[in-house]
Amino acid sequence: MADELPIPDYDQLPLTELRHRIRSLDEGQLRGLFDHEEAHGNRIPVLEVLHARLRELTHGAEPSSGDPANAPGVAHTPHGSAVNEATAADPAAPLPRGRT
Description:
The protein is an all-alpha fold. It has helices spanning 15-21, 27-39, 44-58.
């Protein structure tokens, strides 16, 4: 499924880069990333960023130009991604409120 994501190397992107890459995605693509994140890494800071961008789009923001697939690749770490079920947030925990 990771091959079907609109952003190459999504699971290895640092949060700062992810913020920029998601700006060109439409609402459907963002919802797909949100679902993927909840099912796999479930990283609260990433979910917050995706949720904030979804909120912007539903309130009239437009995706920016550019294609996230053309962005420079991510250098892989020698230990791979630290995202796995053991490091995932508790799925029952609500997202914190008041942060964008």
